[in-house]
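Handout, page 2. Input:
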Amino acid sequence: MSISDLAPETLQLIFGETLFQCPVPSLRQAPLLLAQICHIWREVTIDTPSLWATCCFGAPPVRSSVGQRRRSASWGIKNIQLLELWLSRVGKQTLRYEVYISPHREDVALEVVSLLLQHVQQWGDIALDFPAIVLPESMLTQSDHVFTNLTKLTLNNASVAAGFNSPNQSLQSTGSWLTPEQSFPVLRHLNLPYMPRPALGPLGFPWSQLSSLQCSGWTADDGVVVLLPCVSLQKFTYRWSIPGSSPRAMPVHRLPLLRYLQLTNQALLAVLSLPALTHLHLQGVVRQGPDPFDVVRELVSRSSCGDTLESLTLNEEAAGGIPDTLYQLLQQLPALTYLSLNFDRGLPLGLPTMVPILSDPGCLAHLRTFVFRAWMDDDPDALPSLLEAFKKRVQVTNSALEKVALTVQARPSVVTPPASPPDHYPAAQSAEYLARHLQLVSPLIVEEFRTLALNAGLRLRLVAARPTDGFRDGNGQFVNREEDMDILVDTGMTGEALYRCACTFCLSDVDA
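Output:
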């Protein structure tokens, strides 16, 4: 029996397994590829609506090798013929579509919106990336459409605030025939990236029923405004454009169900109470105002979440000293299983900071994954002391530590200007400066770390890195290029697996 002799129902099941997670309209991918093989496969492909229910139109942002997102050179849907073709074959299937329109193709934007709105009852997981002239939010929230099956919605239009002039407008529908709850009865996940502050006010979404919200604003205050009606949130990711801003004095806002929180910095924490918090990610602690570690400690005490917080990520973003309160904070978190500290801005926080913490068997007793990045000066005892601390940690009975990613970095020139080569330096000396990380760690220490990992069964990655200045991208993000990293030890921790959080919230996958 050949594959062509299989029943159409069997072929449909097989074809369904050939789809990429987010397929694109291409003759090299299913379903179009399947339709080219023979007339039988073509008929089966066309008559299988599920093959046409998931697609990404318009060459979305692609992920580079280091995880940074960038646009392809010719992104954006050029016409709507392919979208029409997919919709003509999708039957009554629930749609999982991503549609990207280039800022220079306003001519097709309104056509695309109008075409998609003819199938609103089939929307399930929809992402729309539209140019400035189009405001799909208004077309969605100020109409009599009922999005019966829409559970997840992403709207990306940075100029959506053009028609709004007040950030304090009520978070209710404006001019809609239906209430937000009637229009979006099952909407639970909302993503509004790059939305300026005024946009957070009048959009008519059912805020009170959302379990996951990602958005952005101008200040920390805007995050409070959008949070107030979101009483059912379990996950909140919020970025704001003014890192040093702090929310106005106001009563503490209690979110009893919130388990995952990712913020630009610690400013919002002062006005929140989060008794169920499991995952806290601060993209950058800021040295303006109160001590950031004290702010986190106060949140933990106020919320009584020390026994629920399993994952903590802290990145440094501004100059200033690192206080001893980091140790005090970690002592308050007995349930912590994942800890990531990224202090690569040349601050006075080096490797010795973690020595007393790791050496204390009563601190972080349940820690399974530890990710640490910090500069290393000329102290010859810094890395050996940290090595001894790890030895003590793994020798403890029932030690939970499983995975360690340790990056030591040549001290950045923002702290030590004499060490930074001026522009007029000869190329040879500049190259020597940029290659300082290659001499950071002695071969003896490398071998001791490798032996420790093998004896203790640790999945360990030890890396020496260049100083941050000179190899950040245009957005100021650290770039893990091969020439910037000297991987000294890697016992099975290649790829991004090490950095993936495994707290109970992340494992529950609330966005699924």
